[in-house]
Structure formats: C-alpha cells, structure tokens
C-alpha cells in the first residue's frame, strides 16, 4: 500500500486493527499526518471504553498506556521462584493466556495468537520473546507437549510442531478440546473425513501421542465418535481415560477411552444418569479428574400449575385470594397475563386496595424474571492433592463437592483445572484456589504466622487425615454441612499479588493454571491517575458502584414514602418501535419486562440509566 493512502485516517484506522500499540506508536515518526492519525486512533480506542475528552494536553499514547494497561501476574508453585508480573505483554489488550509444557500462547482481543517457547518466556522475564503470530484465531491449546493447536475463525483446525511444520487436522470445526495425548473436535456440520469410512462424521478423536509431521495423516490417528442423535454438544472435558460431553439439553454423555484399541475406529457414547435433573451448565477436566457445575433455573410464573400458583400467592401474602384462583383453575400463564391489569384485579379477584394492586403487579413482574438456585459442583476422579475440595483419595466417585462462599448475586465466570489445583473466578473479580498438599498459596505474612504444629510430619498429620475422612462421611449425610466446611478447601486469593499499600482497584478477568504457574490477568483502576485525566469519569465510576437492578428501583419508587410515583417516567425499549416512554403508574400495570427498561426519569431528569450505569436514586 502507498504511504499516501496510509495517511488517510479511515484507511489507517482500518489497518490499525491489525497492529500492536507499539507498532502504531512507531508510525508517529513517519510524518506529521501519520502522527495525527496515531493520536486520533488512540483517542477512538479510549472512547470505546468510555474515556472521552480528557482534561489534559498530555498525548493520547501516554494516557492510553496509563489507563488501558492490564497486568499479568505469575505465581510459581516452585517456592524457589518469587512471584513476578508483566505489564503490557504485547502492548495490546490480552484476552487469554496459556503456559504449556513446550509453548506459551497469548490471545488478544483482536483474535491474534502469539506463540513462543515456554522456557523462553519464563526465563527472559524482562525481554520480549520471539513470537509466532497467527491471525483470526478462534481457539487454541498449548496442553500437548511439543506442539500447539489452534482453530481459525473459518473452521480450520491446525497443529504446529517444534520445527514449525504445520498440518491441517480437519475443516469446518466448531470447537475442540485437548488432553496431553488426545484431541476431540466437534464439527459445525457432519463431515466426510478421508481417514474414516463414514460419510457423515459429527466428531472425531485425534491421537496426539507419538505424533510427528510424518504420521499426521495416518488412518490410525483418527477415530469417529458416535454422538447421541438429535443432541447438540456444547462442551467437552477430556481426561486420561474418559471423555465427557455436555449437550444443550443439559445431559452429560461419556466415552470410555481407557481400553480403546487403535484398530477400532468407532468410539461410542453413553448417557450418565447421575447428572439427570442436576441442570449441568459446564464441565471441566484436569489431569485425572473431572468437575461438573450445575445451576437449576427457577421456573417462571408462566410455567406454573394452578397448585404452584396457589402456593405462591399464600407465600407473598395474598392467601385471601387463593380460593378464587383455585375455583377458576387459573394457570400461571393465564394469571400473569391478566392479573397485572387493575380491571381484572377488581372484577375477578375482588382486590380494590390500590397499594395491594401495585404490590401484586410488582410480584408478578418479578416472578416472570429468570431466576436461579445456588450453584452445585460435582467432582470425580483422582483427588491425590485435594484438587476436588474433598478429603484426599485416589478414586472419588460422583459426588457433590464444596464451593467457596460466593457473595450475593455473584456469578461464576470461569473454573480452571490445573495439575494439582482448581481455581474459580467470579464476575466480581474474586479468585478462589483449592488448598492442596503441594503448596498453599498465602501472603508472606500469613506464611510467617503459621503455627509450629503444622510442621509435624507424624501423628498429627495422620490424625488430621482420619478427621478429614470422618468429616467427608458426615458431609455426605448432610449436604448443607458440606457447604459450611468450604473454608477448609478453598482460599480467597484475590489480593495475593497486591501489596498492602496499593490503593488501586484490581479486577481479575482471566485465570490459567499450568503445571508450574498460576497466571492471572487483571485490569487495574487507578483513581488518582484517572482523576487527573477524566474527573467526570471518576464521578460516574463512583455512581456505578451503587447501581441497582431494575426491580429494586421499581420497589424503591413504589414503597419509599419520599417518592411520588406520578413524578416518574419509564423509558423502555420496544422491539419494533425503539425507545418508548410511559408514566410509571402505567408501566406497573403493563406487561413490559424489566430487562427492557433503559432509564427512569424523575420530574424530567434521568435518575437511573442502564447504558451508563447511572444511579442517582
């Protein structure tokens, strides 16, 4: 491309999506116009994360590096290596990172994959490794020794060896999962694989053990997995002797690969009935163990029977109207459609009290929202290091295991299974790690304060082991007690990398467990620096902290005596007409769902705004 074309901002902005920040900054020296383009590009990047019109003449490249930076922290399970961190690994935002036995992979927000030798990355902490770069990468894995595997956005699944030879395993792959010796690929549509006899293959098992560039295409490397008919597989977990599959209907299937012969090219799957009605939403695998996370939906009022509707009315204080509902044989669907209207409340139910009419409408709106029960975690396999959060065992059968005590309304966004630990990351940025016999991650001051009795390697350890087994048996009898015992097996390590005098706000958004390292990627919010550049953003950030859900705002307006309901206007999004405004009193009696509400106005001023997370109430 000609330099004159590159100097046109629209052209430059498009090309900048494929450049690192360092590459963009280097272009500032080309010409005056190019320098201006660089500053405008960085300004647009800052605006994309909500930072507009800085109150400073500082160049955007300096602001960008100060604010948009994320830090990656490393904790080694080898006590001889101190924790260390990298800032701006690539000069651009990082989405995920994996440290494998041979390769380290880093995936950016622009879906560019950077690969280097793991020993090179770990040894030269202050130097930039020699990266191999792959573009438009959807998924990758550095698990297998001596090779790395990546899936492109077009569905091509490739494997790269240490000599950088590359082999195309399959096309039209939807997603894949790997263990140290095997790979499972699920196709977006049934495929014809040349190495397999079937014309319609939905999934394959590819053998990675003893794989070389010379034997990649051998028939023995490919096996066909027979998936259940009419089931859409959304997740895979691979262990050393079994494969588990999770379907969209929340069913779990298993393939036993322990005794599979190389000459047998067909692998069958069977359903695991243990997980029926447990509402499994995710499955995970470590070296020789598995986890399954379940969370049951609470049925919406629209799905309730007449009996369930009666019980609900009694629970919320409307027991006087239960017989009317019973006599008319209302279902939840019928009742939710009609009972939000004042005419129905007066004529069909005999409900004339205005406050009770509003309360009933509010409760119906709340009952129509999707709600969930508490998480449940199930584990099985080897627990020789305590990774399953239960007492040590070489063979744990399917069992419910403990979870950390999550904060109210917090969501689990990632579970990472390592060689000897399990990590849980939540939406609020909390990070939990299983304690194990290999090494307990604690702050230095906590380690120094450990009592001397923990150094006893004899009778006390055996006594503790016997007590663990006793506790485990009691927990199986009483599931609630198991949840109370979670502190024995989980540690909150959210602040393990943060110095006590560091006042910045850290939020973890990705975690990876390798054989030797715990890797955590954090975003950092520094009030002092941002206040210098964006004072208005800091004010908005403080307001965002107390941002209330829609239903809480509705309840506040309904029941807080200092508010007049007639002063409020509700702005909601209609799927056909866009943003619509209605008086609050009319909104309460409507069937508009709360997740469609975009803002509330009080006397013409916006006091709650979903998009800006503004909450002045």
Automatic annotation (TrEMBL):
A Pfam family of this chain: MJ1316
Sequence ranges of Basic and acidic residues compositional bias: 466-480
Chain intervals for the UniProt region annotation (Disordered): 442-487
RCC repeat positions: 375-428
Domain SAM: 304-370
Listed InterPro entries: Leng9, MJ1316, Reg_chr_condens, SAM
Protein name as it appears in the record: SAM domain-containing protein
Originating species: Paramecium pentaurelia
